[in-house]
């Protein structure tokens, strides 16, 4: 559906962007990465708002590298809603529909939670409502590809969850592909078939959300999903010492690195290494403990009480990343 072949853009001192990427028809891909990693640049290049220095962009079989945005058959929802001040919510949709249909436009507004607001103009809508008009307009155009840049950032958590599932189901029903930039790992897990992690203008990993969560290939990929402990360690021939016990690790084989593990990657085990529970948090229906592991403090999903001495063991191989990555 979408193919980028060595698409590059040189921003001089701000760095070089270079990406090769493929998106299947109907696929929803989340784009995660730290601020400044190149997520918006990727969308701008695909949309035609930015010209690449080298490389080629295809939509389906057609090369669109030099096509202006309006000839690319895609829709985008960026953070500034770009609504027309003189048009009502309904008129925004009618204007972009190939066959304008008031009934269908009305129904779409209802599906994004704007029932009864058909006649409102942008200045009569809240920020979150404007964002939803922009989303409904993008969907009304029936694009082959939808580009989303933090589309739910102005919404409260309940509405955000409702809407992201509703939009994902609309996209799947219409078989529309989407590139979805987000900072929110829950959003990527909820809607994306695959996740692309960006770092320094490049894609460092493309995989299913579960694979990126459990097998991150770089430190930035590990960070993208949160729920992460990072402890400085010394690795010797693939082993680290944790409170007097040696554990095999993967990744860095020797030298200083960062031991990276999720809250659920350690579990109680009589043969494990000793740790002391410092504090207990009640997060989202689960119990999280801050523990002292001897080499530093970490958060672990654990049923324990403050002050308790526990023994912990990794559920799988722990990973160490080079400190400078
Ligand atoms: N037109 C431009 N001219 C010069 N540098 C640019 C331009 N556009 C982007 N950059 C630089 O390219 C890098 C990537 O920017 P981009 O906006 O794509 O990041 P991002 O991942 O979307 O960040 P954020 O999450 O903060 O929105 C940054 O270092 C930015 O300063």
TrEMBL record:
ABC transporter domain segment(s): 2-225
Signal peptide: none
SMART domains, sorted: AAA
GO terms (BP aspect): quaternary ammonium group transport
UniProtKB keywords: ATP-binding, Cell membrane, Ion transport, Iron, Iron transport, Membrane, Nucleotide-binding, Transport
Listed GO MF terms: ABC-type ferric iron transporter activity; ATP binding; ATP hydrolysis activity
GO cellular component: membrane
InterPro entries, sorted: AAA+_ATPase, ABC_SmlMolc_Importer, ABC_transporter-like_ATP-bd, ABC_transporter-like_CS, ABC_transpr_FbpC, P-loop_NTPase
Family matches, as CDD domains: ABC_Carb_Solutes_like (cd03259)
PANTHER family membership: SPERMIDINE/PUTRESCINE IMPORT ATP-BINDING PROTEIN POTA, SPERMIDINE_PUTRESCINE IMPORT ATP-BINDING PROTEIN POTA
This protein's name: ABC transporter
UniProt source species: Meiothermus ruber (strain ATCC 35948 / DSM 1279 / VKM B-1258 / 21) (Thermus ruber)
Lineage: Bacteria, Thermotogati, Deinococcota, Deinococci, Thermales
